[in-house]
Amino acid sequence: MPMRLSWLAVPALNTLFQFFIKLGAEQMHSQSPEVWLWQALSSYWILAAIAVEIVTFFIWMNVLAELDLSRAFPLSGISYVLIIATGWFIFDERVVALQIIGSGLILTGVWLIAGANVETGTKVETAAKVETETKAEAGDRRDLDVGQRKELRTGTGKDR
Question: Residue ranges of region Disordered (predicted)?
Answer without folding.
Answer: 134-160
